[in-house]
Amino acid sequence: MHLELPSTALKSFKDFLKHYLMIVLSILTALGLEAWIERVHHQHAAEAASEQIDAEIRTNLVEVREALAKDTRQADVLGRLRDTLEQDLKTKAPDKDLEQLALTQIHSFNFNLNLRWPTLRQEAWDVAVANQSASWIDSKRMYRYSAVYAAQRETATTLESNLRLIINGPRMIDTMTDLRSGSLDPHELLRVVAQMDDMQEQAKSDLSDLAQQMQNALDGKDSAAQ
């Protein structure tokens, strides 16, 4: 900021006061202009960050919905296979007959966990936090964004926990090995299928909740109020 000194001597207190007020006015104008420029810069940065985050959430939402659709179809297959095996076992038929029935059912269904889990991006969010443009976004909108990305991390962690709790890896490998050899225990197969079906149902529920939270954030809705 540049201040002009008086070119002539101040002859009275009135002249001094006038010049003093001009200096103060110049300073206030400069400070106000600087604050306005900074505010406009922050607004533009917040708008740009919001657009990038919205685009990223939309991309993630597409991935989540595609995974949810595939997991829903696979859960339906596993559920029907489980129900069919249960009915066959309730007939109390000889083990050899049950084994043949189980093999027949396996070949007619798509026996595979085939769990689909999307890879969710968060680069736009990380950049907004790193360059502090996130701090200039409207507080309610910022809350929705942070909730979505927290939900993404939490959902992925839940999946890992459920896999460890629900799926018996060694038992599944043994069952798959028996299937390839053409010989298996129908009761053991039913247990494995039930585990797989439970895992698919958990994944469906988690993905459905995550998709709803993403959509709410894009629509400007508070998920906690739903």
Q: Please, could you describe this protein's structure?
A:
The protein is mostly helical and 226 residues long. The chain has one domain. The protein has helices at residues 13-90, 95-108, 123-130, 139-166, 169-181, 186-219. The longest helix has 78 residues, at 13-90. Keywords: Membrane, Transmembrane, Transmembrane helix. The chain crosses the membrane at residues 20-37.
For the structure shown, list the relevant keywords:
mainly alpha, 226 residues, rod-shaped, 6 helices, 0% strand, single chain
What would you say about this model in short?
With 226 residues, the protein is an all-alpha fold. The protein has one domain.
